[in-house]
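#struct-queue
[09:14] JT: dropping the first one here, sequence first, then the structure tokens:
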Amino acid sequence: MAQQVKRAFKYRFYPTDEQAAELSRTFGCVRLVYNKALEERTRAWYGEQRRVSYVQSSAALTEWKKTEELAFLAEVSSVPLQQALRHLQTAFGNFFARRAKYPRFKSRKKSRLSAEYTRSAFKWRDGKLTLAKMTEPLDIRWSRPLPGGAEPTTATVSRDSAGRWFVSLLCEDGIAPAPATTNAVGIDAGLTSLVTLSTGEKITNPKHERRDRARLTRAQRALSRKEKGSANREKARRKAARTHARITDRRRDFLHKLTTRLVRENQTVVIEDLAVRNMVKNHSLARAISDASWTELRSMLEYKCAWYGRELVVIDRFFPSSKLCGACGTVAAKMPLHVREWTCDCGAVHDRDVNAARNILAAGLAASACGDGVRPQRESSRTGRSSMKQETQRATAGIPRL
């Protein structure tokens, strides 16, 4: 039976000069309202230890519109301004729940330019979207159709650093579970091979940033030579931004195709909980790790498995997948990165990445089946081996070795 989920469908559009001017004013007003409300909340919190609610911020917004200095806030749609206050409320809720850091002010140059319109602030008729304060519908390039009979509940308009305009439509969509299968796969993330599967397949890392590095270097070098504030500097900035956007788009497209294939082919997907934030502190590998985008890969697997009725198992980051012999359960004392193939004392010869992927799969299946932990356990007095090693051997018993 299909489950109802909320999905965002993102499209590029080309605004008229009047629409672009209206949206630019709205972006500026959204940023101003967010920053001003954050300033008021910060003053109340640090000065009086008092929390300001969304209702109080909304009332303050009404008063700001009545002042001569901020009267221009009334010239744009009120809904994106109210949504900015709701987003700020969510940010503070995450902060007080210790899920995020203290909210930061939006920058004119670095922050994402966007405005969110709820159903009361746009008109959807005959497949055309018209935003509040506009007389003409947006010229949207429908790269893919919306679900049959879907009605957008929220429209988020944004403009990226390359000057491209996008609209994201949030809709209710019924997603049917994928056909059941008995396949399971363990995934070992890497740099030479983006992922190595427990089946022995290695998917080469496309290295999108490296492929465009020369073009990006030229664009950034040209940008650094331009005088600040000049029209030529803005042109050079747009050119560099387009190169970055090209890299990002190609990377995301590749990850979407890869994760969709993995989810469709396998009932259970097992991955490692990588500490990417700590790994990028290695300055010699930070650029390559960022280009691999392991965090985005995991994020895609998470929501696609939830959509299509698959199981995603995440094993502990301290599980010694690379150092563990899948044949006898022995853990090697050390395993430097340059070692790509190693021989265990039992005589088994392992490809480092394939062995790691198979150990990840075995650990994930063990954890899923019997709830055993996937961190290295202390040796038991009865067997002299950890429970994880025993479960790993049992789970890998039926997996053919290469």
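[09:21] JT: and here's the second one, same format:
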Amino acid sequence: MIRHSDISDADLYALLKKGALTFAGHKSGKIFGRLDCASGKRMKRGERVFFADASEALALGYRPCGHCMKDAHAQWKRPASRCAPSGCT
């Protein structure tokens, strides 16, 4: 996990261009989603974190976004099948 406030814009751009970061999350809300999510784009810089993949976010206790990850969120929401660090079942 990389905090947006801890990385320079140039370094962040380089990581995004390489494809090293694929998801962003809201630090205090514990929600993560795709980088192009409209909800995620409205986050304040101090609250935004970046993840290499979904399993990293899930392992840190973040839940899938209900807007940009509808299927994963629906699976997470079902009480009998909460997402594990290895992914949603």
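[09:30] RK: nice, looked through the second one.
[09:31] RK: The first helix runs from residue 9 to 18.
[09:31] JT: good to know. The domain at 2-81 is CATH 3.40.10.10 (DNA Methylphosphotriester Repair Domain).
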